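Hey team,

Filing this mostly as a record. A colleague (T.K.) asked me to run one chain through the structure pipeline before their review meeting, and I want the input and output archived in the tracker in case anyone asks later how it was produced. No errors, nothing strange. Just documentation.

Input sequence:
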Amino acid sequence: MIKRLLPLYLLIFIFGCDPKDDPQPDTPVAALELTNLAYGSGSQQQIDVFLPEGRNLANTPLILYIHGGGWIQGSKEEFLPFKSSMNTLLSGFAFASINYSLFNVSTFENPFPTQENDVIEAIEYIESMKAEWDIEGGLILVGASAGGHLALLHAYKHQAIGNIQSVVALFPPTELSELYDSDETAAFLLSGLLEGTPETNPTLYNESSPVNYISPSSVPSIFFHGDQDLVVPISQSELLAKTLQENGVIYEFQKIPGQGHGFTPEVYPSVLTAASQFILENQ
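Output structure:
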């Protein structure tokens, strides 16, 4: 008798369950913000992550923002004023912003390439967390000033780490020996950061300059520079454009008339729009 009833009970179990009791696989994944995550053991190695609603492991690209501040100051919060616009312009993208170890001009702690290595660690952490965050897709690097330098350096020198798809830079240093010669302030900072001058430590200056790693296989690049920049001369971006062109790399260079180091609020909407269009076209 018991054997005869078993199939009946099994059918009741299979077909009698309330569908509302099952997980809903079609429910969109909710948006999620994760702040001050540690991507390394250093006190400044922190990352904020902004994951979009409906993200998936099929195609959710991530944009990593690297802040400026002359390698000696600044924070990941620099991204926040751009976050709303970027969400609108690049719907469905995930975003992240990092702190990195800052060079201390008094104690000479954290000289280069500490910052370069922090970017590598942050990207390796992102790669390790993709499944947990429900994202998969290309990684795009964006940075301003010193952050633009770090974004370009990683994109050209370490492109395979994170499978970088494209890079966006605002008023970036690109050739540090020439930047050293541009004025006394730059010379003072770089002689500490790079532990010497271009004459006494030429290897580190060469290894820390993004233009030295450009090849025909370099990633598509877009960059913006004010023609009145007195901190990072526009010649740094002009040299970048020349080197990219010589190597046949896809790039776009926008000179921003009347702008210095850091753009006025009226300029950023058009810059963000152009950068977003470039990213989408080069996915």
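Quick notes for T.K.: The domain at 28-281 is CATH 3.40.50.1820 (Rossmann fold). Strands lie at 32-38, 46-51, 62-66, 94-98, 139-144, 164-170, 221-226, 251-256.
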